[in-house]
Amino acid sequence: MFICFVIVNETPHALRGLILSSLSKVGARCLTAQAATALRESEPMFRYEEYADIDWNNLGFGLTQTDYMYTAKCKENESFQQGQLRDYGNVELSPAAGVLNYGQGLFEGTKAYRGENGRVFLFRPDQNAIRMQMGAERMCMRSPSVQQFVDAVKQTAFANKRWIPPPGKGSLYIRPLLIGTGPILGLSPSPEYTFLVYASPVGNYFKEGTAPLNLYVNDEFHRATRGGAGGVKSITNYAPVLQAISKAKEQGFSDVVYLDSVHKKYVEEASSCNMFLVKGNVISTPATVGTILEGITRKSIIDIARDSGYKVEERLVTVDELMEADEVFTTGTAVSIAAVGSITYNGQRKEYKTGDGLLVDLTLLLLGIILKVVEFVTVFREFDLITTVRHREVLLMITGRKRRDRTPPYV
């Protein structure tokens, strides 16, 4: 099993002097897509500081305005034009824009991490690009190519590098948006689309920090239905769960677990993350059958667990099974991996084992792959590194323990 990661590298030595020499100049604060991947002496420069002046020890999951954002536009039946970095700021929209009137919009989420050696790591942005393309097809939208998506994320991370927290303090959350910005009155696809990427430094998603979550199973509200858009990251999937979340938080819960809308007994997902349960030596997670988002972290955990010798089942999971599990955890870009301490359903509260066992192994593996993957670099490029990582070696490096003997599925 191989996983491919795109990593934003430190500025090459030959260009570092060029950047530093420009610090005394104000310069225009705009770079083209080409400029961010191959800076030239004639092209404008941006601010170069190691860190922004904020309290890195108290980052929550809130919006902090950074320096730059990326934008690109696409007319009907055309491809996206070359994008551009510009100052972070408001976006002007027609009141008849498709996204405002008919909710024609998608978003993604990925993160940039700072390693101990100063390198900046992006976690599988190509997978976000593919998922956005799938969502765009479902929502009748034009979408950027995988290459343009990854380049845009890389440029945004590189331009806002001073906002990437120090190692262990958090990450730079990167939010790509695809929205219908063209004016349209009748119900039909927008005549114009905008691809936009912005970023914000963040800490833990939940207010509990790294403490186990307390979840509430809601059988009144449903996140998605068969035939709907629950399987893609449409902006229309999120506002409908706000009422359920608000009610749950008023009662002291961290988040809500939703059940299927037909039988009201099969677990789907939480408001912003996928669900996993552990019973014995088997890991189970609800199958993505059109109502559940195929999370990038979810996919990574499944790959890592299987390659480490664990049995992983993607299937229908009943709420009764959830209440009888040994361990429960959630995964998502925003939450990474979060342990669940308890789940309440129909007035009954079930507490789960936390602090040791499988979840710790998987968390160490995922963090090891994100932050220590540079030790397994195989191909170098000017500003980025493409790496392939063997999970077995990472497990040994991080935990000191070999995975269970099993025929390696490496290719």
Description of the molecule:
With 411 residues, the chain is α+β, with helices and mostly antiparallel strands. The protein has helices at residues 13-21, 33-37, 98-102, 125-138, 146-159, 242-250, 296-307, 319-323, 358-372, 391-399, and strands at 4-8, 31-32, 68-75, 84-87, 105-107, 110-114, 120-122, 171-180, 192-202, 213-218, 255-259, 267-270, 274-279, 282-286, 311-315, 327-332, 336-345, 348-351, 377-380, 384-388. The strands form 2 sheets. Strands 1, 2, 3, 4, 5, 6, 7, 8, 9, 19 and 20 form an 11-stranded antiparallel beta sheet that branches. Strands 10, 11, 12, 13, 14, 15, 16, 17 and 18 form a 9-stranded mixed beta sheet that branches. Strand 17 (336-345) and strand 18 form a beta hairpin. The chain is globular, with a radius of gyration of 22 Å.
- The quaternary state of the protein chains shown equals single chain
Structural class: alpha+beta
Low-pLDDT segments, ≥5 res = 1-44, 372-411
Order of H and E elements:
EHEHEEHEEEHHEEEHEEEEHEHEEEHEEH
The strand count comes to: 20
Largest sheet: 11 strands, antiparallel
Residues in helices, as a percent range? 10-25%
Distance between the termini: 7 Å
Give the radius of gyration: 22 Å
Number of helices: 10
In percent, how much strand structure appears in the residues? 25-35%
Mean pLDDT: 79
The 3D shape can be described as globular
